[in-house]
Amino acid sequence: MATFLCKLGRLSFRRRHLVALIWVALLALAGAGAAGAPAAGNSSFSIPGTEAQKAFDLLEQRFPGTTADGATARVVFKAPDGEKMTDPGNKATVQDTVKELADGSEVARVTDPYQAKAVSKDGTIAYAQVSYKVSGMELDDAAKDALRDTARDAREAGLTVEIGGDALQAVPHTGSSEIIGIAVAAVVLVITFGSLVAAGLPLLTALVGVGIGVSTITALASALDLGSTTSILATMIGLAVGIDYALFIVSRYRAELAEGREREEAAGRAVGTAGSAVVFAGLTVVIALVGLSVVNIPMLTKMGIAAAGTVAIAVLIALTMIPALLGYAGRKVRPAGQKGKLPGRSRTRQDTPARPNLGTRWASFVVRRPVAVLLLGVIGLGAAAVPAASLELGLPDDGSQPVSTTQRRAYDLLSEGFGPGFNGPLVVVVDARGSDDPKAAFTRAGDEIKGLKDVVTVTPAQPNQAGDTATITVVPGSPPSSVATEDLVHGIRDAGSGIKAGTGADVLVTGSTAMNIDVSEKLNDALVPYLVLVVGLAFLLLIVVFRSILVPLKAALGFLLSVTAALGAVVAVFQWGWLSDLVGVEQTGPVMSMMPIFMVGVVFGLAMDYEVFLVTRMREAYVHGEKPAQAVVTGFRHGARVVTAAAVIMMAVFAGFIGSSDSMVKMIGFGLAIAVLFDAFVVRMAVVPAVLALLGRKAWWLPGWLDRALPNVDVEGEGLRAADDGDDTDRELVRA
Length: 736
What we know:
Layout lengths: L1 H13 L1 H20 L15 H12 L9 E7 L9 H15 L4 E4 L14 E8 L8 H16 L3 E6 L11 H17 L2 H29 L3 H31 L4 H28 L7 H32 L28 H11 L1 H16 L7 E2 L11 H13 L7 E6 L6 H13 L4 E4 L3 E2 L5 E8 L6 H21 L2 E5 L1 H35 L3 H26 L4 H4 L7 E2 L2 H29 L4 H29 L6 H33 L8 H6 L8 H18 L1
């Protein structure tokens, strides 16, 4: 592989005009497609194989025209102190508001609080429900404005009015903090390279790669049902790996220049060596992201595949566009060790002996004290992981919104007037097509549900026109995200088995609360198979890269340490509220259900990035004759500075998304940033060298039969070294 990539690097360096033209053309093509495509909405949320999804699909079949997937808005009214919603003046205001809400081409129906008995027992709170023909993301701005204006008119009449539901749902935005993350990355690159030109290359190529990836996602969003969050996550991961991959190749290029090679040859060797590591690091990330499809949640699958595509583009750009731009840069990119003209970057005197860099000094310390460093790192990560034992999973609803939003205030008013479970009603679907007496089946289902624990209200069964299917609304006594509500869902489903046996009717539970419970259970069930698949495939890949059994095993165990510690930090901040003001978390609550499995996928891929980039340098030194302990020090001397810069850049990019208005993006940005901190600076910089120092030569052991069976991918560039030796021999023969 190293030989092939070296030729590719040289070709890209020589044919720089053609390479640059191809990437610019691809960017323009993707941009044109994005510009002409309809705006992305929220991806349709379906969970194949779950009871909640089966019931939802049944509703669409048996109750046609009900727009089950349409947007809804709950307009909540509260009377002034000392008054009631049944007072004539307040009642007239609400009825006028209901009439105004019904005006609109996208409105399907509006319920009158007084006819629907949607007034609290104390008479102070009432609500009107507006159902729309289209989803929240498809709702026209004019309809949203009309909804807000109608609420404002009712407020001017003296009522407190808030709006809940998904009708006012907005496309998430990331804010200016994303730009700050890129700015931090630029500063780190300038400090690392001491040159504005060298620092600009990784930023430029990363932006081109993300531009192509995100524009392609935008262009295909409508056709493939890609949600708006998909492009944000692709941007997050694409920027991070794009900058890092380019950083490693540019750094190796400067090192090759420092050894006296010509620029074209240095570009080729940089792509042949560091580029090999980029390919395998990118493969681990792609495997981890594509592997999310095993969960069988379409939205998660699409997010993973889209992000994986952006990573693949980042790899291709690093292998081709970076050497092309190095050809344009010429002497503006200096050899490693040759300082630039930036402030504080003066040249070192030639007669001054070079002082060992920080990476060398740190690695030497770890090699001398491996046990102490290993214990300190493992105990520290273990302490950070303790909160993960209290992990509670759920999906965000209006109750997780900031208290400053009208959705959250509406949620609180409904809880105050109708009980905490009112915001998460359960919809029970009774399919009586197989029953001899459908009406008796409906009645029995309602009666049995009324006898269950934590049930506040059970509405009479509402049959469809055919009379073979009915819906029953159940209001729990506990909040939607509580364990008691989860137990109630399982209780209804257990009772359904008896109803089925007695009447022949199927009883299914759905609704947003039941859907959230099913999602959490599905994700929990998929976590272990996903870990086995992703870690297993990456383990095999790393055996090929490092030609070792213990090094990949150590890499996988180190990943488990860092991801568990990162989940602990997420629980401490987003669930417990520690440092929540610093991160901008206005409302604590359960951790998003897909967070653990998403973090496992992304963090594993990124963790293997640092493993590959750092340990391949050690492997290279060991293969070329150094002792194991010295190889560890050599690997740090060449790679620690660059890996540190890469980690800081990745943390800055991920942390930039903490400013997002979307709670899911905010949580993922924080989780990935803290995971990179733990993995890069504790696991890879401390635990890995300590373990390698303790293992010695055993770290690089591989059974002979397996060594012969594995393909030789030559990540260390041994083939390039052999070619150089052959060229030197040929030159000696010519001179002789």
